[in-house]
Amino acid sequence: MNNKQNQWSIDDAETTYNVKRWGNGYFDIGESGDINVIPRYDQPNLKINLKEVVDEIQSEGIQFPVVIRFHDILRSQVELLNKTFRNTIEDADYEGQYFGVFPVKVNQMREVIEEIVDAGSRYNYGLEAGSKPELIAALAYNTNKNSLTILNGYKDEEYLRLALLGLKINRKIIIVIEKFSELINLVKLAKSLNVKPLIGLRVKMMVKGRGKWEHSSGERAKFGLSIAEILNAVSYLENEGLSDCIKLLHFHIGSQLTDIRAIKEAVQEASLVYSKLVKLGVPLEYVDVGGGLAIDYDGSQSTNDSSCNYNLAEYVSDIVYGFKQNCDLESVPHPHLVSESGRAMTAHHSCVITNVIGEIHPSGTQYSTKKSTGEHIIVTNMRDLENDLVNADKNNTHQEIFNDVVQLKSQAMQAFKLGIFSLDELAKVETMYWRILNVIEQKTREHDFVPEELNEISEMLSSQYLANFSVFQSAADSWAIDQVLPIVPISRLHEKPSKLCSLVDITCDSDGKIDKFIGQDSVANNIPMHTLKENEDYFIGIFLTGAYQDVMGDMHNLFGRLNEVHIVSYDDDPKDFYIEEVVKGSSVDNVLSTMQYTPAILEQAIKKEIDVQISRGKLKPREGVQLIDFYEDCLKGYTYLK
Ligand SMILES: *Cc1c(COP(=O)(O)O)cnc(C)c1O
């Protein structure tokens, strides 16, 4: 944080929260100190004030936390990906075309799939499914005859039958063989149903991705065929008279590929495998480069796990030019290109907005520290140190006092354990200890140079802001794999934030917290926030939650799905947007029902008990009815805090 007091501008807010850098053109901070959403990449002047969206949600009586979906961002990303491939292909005189597919597992919500299919239809953009349920959805939604449906994941007979059903209704369905035995089942079925399948072969790549998902490739990868298996597959299909069905070569070296070099190496390896197979007479038409296009969650443009050192244009260019060069060298035709970018399509389009409902502060409580007769010397010494503070104006003196109070506090704990220190004395020492640290922290912040140890005081004094959400439902990867997600107050950004905070959620799980934030040079344990004001909401946004986070949440503590608000931009509206749809989140009876409870039986049980109390004269009948009504209202209500 800026050491100078009181001077603060929007630029400082920008450096603190990196909004433009992770925002990818979709977010910035307005002069009013509110976060703006710029939902269309081709209309940079169309700005939606996020605070105004939140105000409108509030005035409609929708409870927080909410997921806000910006449908225009979803469309923008689909258009950008397809246009970038098309333009690069044209510039490079590349002879194949681009047929992207969206991997359904990244966000299976119907509204998301519908919007993506619609925005992608004029680019023949298709879908990728990795399981039977995803395939069942993809069959019904990917109705464009010219777009691909790519099938990955392990496949049983039913999955394969569904795929062949798709072929019978004229869909371009490519079945990617992940495991040799799938091929044998497929050939048997295809012959008995009399359909010619379109077959893809997933190659187990030697090159390793970098980052959290690097195990997706290499010899020990879960999916894919070794080179020996690929050659066996080719001769097996030749013998079965189906070698003309092999259409696609597939690879996927991992998600969130942080380093562009891994992509360059993969393209090199895959283009050689492709070329050699074509020369052997395998009629491959497509190469599918899988997913992995990364999101710069922390805005550092680095190879951090939550970042990446390249952008969309560079990614596409490395793929198109890489295949062109290698195919030209080997004198084979340029294949059509397929990619399965998921994260990059959906991450930006949704965010979680929640309010901070309280503060947990180590030094929050005051206790009278008045001198009492016969008090322990440790208490007296602590009081003397507090008095010394007045004259300490040089850093080294502050450091001395800091060292002394830390020692006194630990002596007090020892004395208490020995039974020679009272609870009253301990409470006094604790109160003075935090008071002194607070003063030292404030004083040292006025200096340009702060000794390293005194910097720690800020951490010791940092607050925990209690926010109305569940990490397990809304930010699963933050808990599971230490994913950094941008977290920013949605307004007051023209004010200097005066507190360092981490976040805790409302689950009763001590893992229910977020303590990894965008820092100045690297990941920080705290994030600067503003002081809470009485009778004023403090809304924060958890951004870039549209990929995986949106759909991976669990039922920990029975906090279910969030209320969802779908926003569409609209130039003619004074606020440039309207709420297109509200999707209600889980109610208490919803989540209880999924755990096999029957709400009516729960209600009966309570009613019976209340009736007993009424018959005993302990409850008035009117009061009893009110209690039952209240229980019923709670059952129908939202699971989060009001
Ligand atoms: C998960 C997955 C994807 C999507 O990866 P992103 O990193 O989200 O783009 C694509 N293809 C396959 C085979 C996958 O398993």
* Low-confidence residue ranges: none
Spatial separation of the terminal alpha carbons? 33 Å
Judged by helices, strands and strand pairing, the structural class is alpha/beta
- Classified by CATH, the class of the domain at 96-341 is Alpha Beta
User: What name does CATH use for the topology of the domain at 96-341?
Assistant: TIM Barrel
User: What summary fits the major beta sheet?
Assistant: 10 strands, mixed
Helix content: 40-55%
CATH superfamily of the domain at 96-341: Alanine racemase
Question: Tell me, what's the shape?
Answer: globular
Radius of gyration: 30 Å
| Distinct helical segment count | 22
- In total, the number of strands is 23
| Mean pLDDT figure | 94
Bound molecules: pyridoxal-5'-phosphate
Assess the beta-strand content as a share of residues.
15-25%
The CATH architecture of the domain at 96-341 is Alpha-Beta Barrel
Question: Keywords for this structure?
Answer:
642 residues, alpha/beta, TIM Barrel, Methane Monooxygenase Hydroxylase, Chain G, domain 1, 10-stranded mixed sheet, 22 helices, globular, binds pyridoxal-5'-phosphate
Describe this entry's structure for a reader:
By secondary structure, the protein is α/β, with parallel strands linked by helices. Among the domains are: 96-341, TIM Barrel (Alpha-Beta Barrel); 377-458, Methane Monooxygenase Hydroxylase, Chain G, domain 1 (Up-down Bundle); 590-636. The chain contains 22 helices and 23 strands. The strands form four sheets. Strands 4, 13, 14, 15, 16, 17, 20, 21, 22 and 23 form a ten-stranded mixed β-sheet that branches. The longest helix is centred in the middle third of the chain and has 23 residues, at 395-417. It is globular, with a radius of gyration of 30 Å. It starts with 9 loop residues before the first helix and ends in a 6-residue tail after the last helix. Bound molecules: pyridoxal-5'-phosphate. Pyridoxal-5'-phosphate (PLP) binds at residues 103, 105-106, 130, 152, 252, 255-256, 290-293, 340-343.
